[in-house]
Amino acid sequence: MLGFGTLTKKVFGTPNDRKIKATRPIIDKINALEPEFEALSDEGLKDKTTELSDRAKGGESLDDLLPEAFANCREAAKRALGLRAFDVQLMGGIFLHQGNISEMKTGEGKTLVATLPAYLNALTGKGVHIVTVNDYLAKRDAEWMGKVYGALGLTTGVIYPQQPEAEKRDAYRCDVTYATNNELGFDYLRDNMKSSLDEMAQRGHGFAIVDEVDSILIDEARTPLIISGPSQDRSELYVSVDRLIPDLVDDHFTIDEKTRNVTFTDEGNEWLEEQLKSRGLLPEEQNLYDPESTTIVHHVNQGLRAHKLFTRDKDYIVRDGDVVLIDEFTGRMMPGRRLSDGLHQAIEAKEGCNIQPENITLASVTFQNYFRLYEKLSGMTGTAVTEAAEFAEIYGLGVVEVPTNQPIARVDEDDAVYRTTAEKYDAVVETIREANTKGQPLLVGTTSIEKSELLSEMLTEAGIVHNVLNARQHEKEAQIIADAGKFGAVTIATNMAGRGTDIKLGGNVDFKIMEAIEADPEADPEEIRSRIEAEHAEDEKKVKEAGGLFVLATERHESRRIDNQLRGRSGRQGDPGRSAFFLSLEDDLMRIFGSERLDKVLSKLGMKEGEAIVHPWVNKSLERAQAKVEARNFDIRKQLLKYDDVMNEQRKVVFKQRLDIMKAEDLSAIVRDMRNEVIDDLVETYIPPKSYADQWDGEGLHAAAQEHLGIDVPVTDWVAEEGVDDEEITERLEKASDEFMAKKAAAFGPENMRSIEKQVLLQTIDTKWREHLLTLEHLRSVVGFRGYAQRDPLNEYKTEGFQLFEGMLDSLRTDVTKTLAQVRPLSEEEQAQMMAQMQQQRQMLDQQTEAATAGAAPNPEAAAEGFDENDPSTWGNPGRNAPCPCGSGKKFKHCHGRLQ
Ligand SMILES: Nc1ncnc2c1ncn2[C@@H]1O[C@H](COP(=O)(O)OP(=O)(O)OP(=O)(O)O)[C@@H](O)[C@H]1O
Known about the structure:
The protein is an alpha/beta fold and 900 residues long. Helix content is 54%, strand content 11%.
């Protein structure tokens, strides 16, 4: 019987059906244009691009241009790749252009789909970014689809790790740029650490098409991108905080062993405030709950955790003066691993070890916030519906299911559950043997490199010839995939065989042709081509008769999507195929999340050794377990985003200001405004409003003017004058400092002065912003501990985060004014010294950034590594006026530089 819901869907159509129907007239238009575009010459296609682009720039809407643009792009792909986009692909492209997520089943040709909206949107002249999950795909797609854009007269770029700066900038200036989410995010962060516009790599964020959108915007969204570097030495602080901890008594704090958190009681807080003040760790006028106290409170918390929650020889050991962590699951030492947020340093202080500098965040952004920078965002995936709610909530993206071109012919079997891992693997090997005997190609999915190798050993023992695709076999990836669909092939893979792994039944014909040409370079390539194509058709037929590709998975992943992706390597473009999951009660997912009920039911059903239970109920129960994990992860991400939103708003303000400063020719007005605000503040401090003249502190103001503005003016005389008020004094100070700065500008030359102002502004913003990031991190870890249990930590974080931000802007003004008041032309000697220092710093930062980008912990010693004062080839490019790296004490130009 049909439920009421199903019935109404049948009568009115689902919202998805309606969206699909709405594209029909557009697709008809594109199809009707086909003969007209077929008739165009190759040049004609490019001319069409120029025409469409002119019309777009002239104000015609992209929606109006869509049919012609899609028709042109389809024609170009036909000529360049021999692929004619199917109607469902056009449909997927329309949804992308409209800023949706197009859900298209695995193997439906999403790579080609992306070219349609990318081309249309690139007509505006703003670059389009196509985001892939890994570097291999970015490169593959840029090369593959680059032919289509080339035929249309557009340029294609690709971004990759450690790319030379100039090349990277060019790639971003292409019409369409392929890149991974990691590279895009890091480039954005790095750009906002640059000091001039032409050093910036990216040129804005117009339209992005995120391929495999759920993996990028959902799986990876939990880990923020971070560029870090070492901070200043704060060992003294750790030691002073550490001395305080043993004096705490039991009713000062509570400990929660489960969450590994500590909280101070009201009494504890009172005691702490007093102690911190008496030890000079907290200014007298400051309260423990002031936002300014965040950092010290954070360190006290970490000190307390170090003492009460971390036990020597259980959680860590002390070896050669280092604190080395112990893995709680394996009991092994983890040298080199460090606890974050100053906790490791707190333990070092507790053990009297050397305190190593902590790494601080120089810049950070979550993928969620990076992608929200784009004016228009869209995505593609094989499997989004499981996360539709999250896409709508966080990114405002709708998900539309696009029908498949051909009905899916793959048979997905119910899971087979065994009692033990050993029984499972026995069954896996047996099943592989059966399929292999009839020649059906197999892709066997495993969850780790170790497991893939273990299974490989078993197959070798069983005498089954096979290939292994895992990170160790990275180099041979393309070849292994090209062979995986051949008659009788067995390929064991980790989840490297996921998105983008395009396994062709009978093998990859292009590879076969290439091989044949290489084997016989004398022969006519065209002849080889037609011969191999004919042979390949036979191979393909044979494999189809054997049942197509069989995907056999040996474990379920935490996320349903990853499982579906693995299944989707089979049954592409309507091909026959089969998929099955073999599991055991000892699998991680079953142990951790499989409900006890499952266990009971299975034993009731009476599992016998070596026998599997296959029942749809088991599948449902497992999916529920997976859904639970997904829901938990979703909550974590939402929480992360809420906290990150606070920083995100501030980051946007700061990055925008930076950009404005970089763009500005002349910042003297801004700098003067800052100076005047500082003067207002000074006058207000020393000559309080509505106060009597005898309360005025002329001497204080005199000293402050000297310190902050660099001017020595007779303030004490001024305040003694008859009829002089605060306004008058403010004006005199403004005038005096204007004159002082004007003289300075004349000494430097106006042009130099403008550039000094710019550099000082940028550098001060950067320093302040970094300090602020650190304080925000600390704030985040302390809001939860605050004694006010009834307050919402997130709200606390928002309010205090805002106050800290305002405080940062205030101190920014003061610092810029002070620094500019102090700058003076340098002697040649000083200049040389400074240049050398700056260069060293820059090199160090670059190296650290690279290290952080590569995912490795930045190693402060790395900068010195490789440098050898006896070997000029290790010196890089020393400045001509810098001290010679050989250590002679002479300038480079007068020493080794002379040799060049
Ligand atoms: N219009 C077309 N006509 C014929 N073949 C096509 C067409 N579009 C794509 N294909 C082929 O379909 C295969 C799958 O393409 P692609 O790898 O882009 O799929 P996908 O949707 O990205 O799959 P997955 O996400 O599972 O990797 C490729 O071999 C491609 O050449």
